[in-house]
Structure to design on (404 residues):
């Protein structure tokens, strides 16, 4: 029987544990508290070297593109909204809604990663800023790169959660049966990354908006068609076909992934201010 | 009974949905304000203070609403804030230490000498 039909579950309290908090949630909060210290040390290292600049550092204002960074910040904030809605959906037992929100979060996360990859590539090949070219490059890449790795891990985690939500009861071969579904998901993820990087590349050029959009469609028509096909296929695969072993009882798993994702977002809120905005004052 | 009216559970669900969307929009607006503020011709300390305050508001909104700290047991908040305070304290201490180092011992360039920073500070 679906747990959604079994009645309402209190997702914030668990009377079976001594703290009254689900163990998975407690573990996640403890991990996030430790990760705060990790990022705290990276951010303070960057700020110390900015307060005490070494000769040879490039001017960050000449490097940064505040429009691109603001766009990626907005995307990450919206991904947090979708993640919160995914958690709310599964807490109500709305599986289809949760899957949609989860996939949207993943796509937003990939767009953010696309922006970051584009930014790094731009810095390295056009501005000559590498990990070893200056102290600024070292602290900047280590800090933002570590955050990017966290985002990538989050995307992978959410993808696994999405795949897990298709587990069939009493069917040990459910994962191999989902091979085509998984392949479509992987293809759509890669295509999203390719298309978003192509879009950013077109928009970052010197051309006007209309011309840039035309250039984007001219260069990215094939990935765009493939992405549209992959999304349609994903929708077909995601149609309900019998009972699945995933419901309201798994809300704590989705919430754990959600806590991690929101943490990545709050770290970016700090990085956006401390690394990017502060340079423009 | 009028079935078109939402029951209390549905009403609660709709309210929470609107709350999340409202918070996300507020976060986007605050981000916009942050971007505008850095170009304003006002004193740097005012801009820095405003940026810190706005970032703190965004940070707290995400952890208390999106991360459900508002509805969870207080222990989760305490646990997370232990890490946060330790991280903030470490950052403040490091920044204070090296700010002092900059003003009194000649900056990071001087730190690269054979004498460790803490010895120069104590000395």
């Amino acid at each position: 029987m679906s747990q959604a039909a079994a009645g309402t579950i209190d997702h914030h309290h668990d009377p079976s544990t001594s703290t009254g908090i689900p163990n998975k949630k407690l573990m996640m909060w403890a991990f996030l508290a430790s990760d705060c210290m990790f990022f705290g040390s990276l951010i303070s290292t960057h700020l110390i070297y900015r307060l005490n600049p070494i000769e040879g550092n490039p001017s960050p204002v000449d490097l940064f593109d505040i429009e691109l960074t603001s766009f990626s910040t907005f995307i990450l904030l919206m991904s947090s909204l979708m993640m919160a809605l995914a958690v709310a959906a599964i807490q109500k037992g709305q599986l289809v809604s949760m899957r949609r929100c989860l996939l949207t979060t993943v796509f937003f996360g990939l767009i953010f990663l696309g922006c970051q990859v584009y930014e790094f590539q731009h810095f390295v090949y056009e501005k000559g800023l590498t990990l070893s070219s200056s102290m600024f490059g070292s602290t900047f890449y280590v800090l933002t790169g570590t955050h990017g790795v966290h985002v990538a891990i989050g995307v992978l985690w959410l993808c696994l959660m999405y795949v897990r939500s298709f587990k069939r009861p009493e069917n040990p071969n459910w994962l191999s049966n989902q091979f085509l579904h998984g392949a479509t998901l992987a293809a759509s993820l890669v295509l999203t990354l390719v298309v978003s990087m192509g879009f950013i590349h077109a928009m970052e050029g010197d051309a006007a908006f209309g011309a840039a959009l035309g250039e984007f469609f001219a260069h990215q028509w094939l990935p765009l068609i493939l992405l549209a096909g992959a999304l349609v296929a994903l929708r077909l695969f995601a149609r309900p076909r019998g009972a699945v072993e995933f419901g309201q009882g798994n809300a704590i798993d989705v919430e754990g992934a959600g806590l991690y994702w929101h943490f990545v977002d709050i770290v970016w809120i700090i990085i956006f201010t401390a690394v990017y905005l502060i340079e423009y004052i | 009974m009028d079935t078109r009216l939402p029951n209390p559970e549905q009403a609660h669900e709709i309210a929470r949905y609107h709350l999340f969307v409202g918070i996300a929009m507020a976060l986007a607006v605050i981000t916009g304000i942050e971007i505008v503020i850095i170009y304003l011709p006002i004193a740097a300390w005012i801009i820095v203070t405003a940026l810190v305050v706005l970032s703190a508001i965004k940070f707290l909104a995400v952890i208390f609403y999106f991360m459900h700290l508002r509805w969870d047991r207080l222990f989760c908040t305490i646990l997370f804030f232990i890490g946060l305070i330790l991280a903030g304290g470490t950052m403040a201490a490091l920044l204070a230490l090296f700010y002092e180092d900059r003003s009194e011992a000649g900056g990071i360039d001087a730190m690269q000498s054979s004498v460790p920073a803490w010895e120069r500070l104590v000395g």
User: Anything to note?
Assistant: Chain A touches chain B through 59 residues (CB under 8 Å). Chain A has a mean pLDDT of 87.
